[in-house]
Write a structure and sequence with these properties.
By secondary structure, the chain is mainly alpha-helical. Helices cover about 65% and strands about 0% of the residues.
Length: about 210
Amino acid sequence: MKTYIDYKMLLGEGNPLLRYPRLFEAALDEFSKKKFEDASLNDILKEAEMSKGSLYHHFGDKFGLYLCMIDIFVTRKLAFFHEYLAKQDLGDFFGVVKQLVRATMEYMIVDERMHHLSNRVMELSEDMRNRLLEYYPYDFRQGFGPLIGAAIHSGQIDARFSEEFVAKVLEILLMNSHKLLAPETGMEGFVVTVERIIDFMQHGMSAKKEAD
């Protein structure tokens, strides 16, 4: 009989993976190279020198380990995101969003596994991605709220659009940016694509007409 696992209890400050740095490194190596379904739990445990019994005791199963690794990854990425955003001049909404995307990519390539892991997450099935979002329902309004509010107040964003609406549009576009990429697209190509998405938000699809 399968034991019920409360995955939410694994996340945050009590994340058991924080106590096993060698296991974290082994999991990051494997999950950054392969999709979740293809990643070998046996290879991870062999590299970390951990038994399956210990793994199941602390993490429940393979998904529990994956979730704990993603939790650490997301926490580090968001800490960088908020620290960077707090230092920016909020006078240029679209420019700041572009700079933030590029800065985040540069931050992630310090350890290329983080970038590769992001790519593997993008390759997850829709069901698996939705399953992850149950535990990480990132609130774009909370993250971008001050920036969006300042942009509406300054007239960069039409006041007809609420902060909530703009945040939702930004979420839809950025969370689905991978669908605009070719399989061989590299990091720079990803940044360029996201910059085009921001341009799309700013200028729309209408061609500019030259003044008479």
